[in-house]
Amino acid sequence: MNKENHSVTQKIVEKWGARKDCLIEVLHDVQEECNYLPREILTEVSEELEVPLSRIFEIATFYKGFSLKPRGRFWIEVCMGTACHVQGADIILEAFERELGIKVGEMDENMDFSLDVVRCVGCCGLAPVVTINRDIYGKFGPGQVSAIIEKYRSIPKKKVDIEKKYKEIKRKMKTENG
Ligand code: FES
Q1: Predicted structure pTM score
Q2: 4 vs 145: CA distance, rounded Å
Q3: What is the 116 CA–ligand 1 centroid distance (Å)?
Q4: Ligand 1 centre and the CA of 22: distance in Å?
């Protein structure tokens, strides 16, 4: 196992206390840290949490938010559900493909963007819809494609500080629970 992957696993497993019932949270953190779930890390998580690797793969393939292949730091999904399709989602998709120089299911060479399609994200009233990571853009038009790519591309690359994030979550939980 490479050193970097090993330390990612250690930090995340320590954070959650190597608990089996925190498997999904662990996978979420791995996904956030690496933008996908590297097999090497999943193998180590399986050993640390004593959960069979097959179970981890079951979960990783069930939830769409997880990816087993490398993904760009920004994951663009163009909704191709009926409401979005009739509002021209295919033209938006073509505009993204052209602008990024990639096809659906691919990642650009800088590992900034991955492009995918999705069947309805549940806000058909806003059709056509595009999501980028957790951001939702409704009433989206092909003319907005270059600007939105530029906006995300200009966000500096930085690794997620897991410790800091964990402290934030704990603080939030404390406030919510009084
Ligand atoms: S069809 Fe696109 S949000 Fe429902």
Answers
A1: 0.72
A2: 35
A3: 14
A4: 32
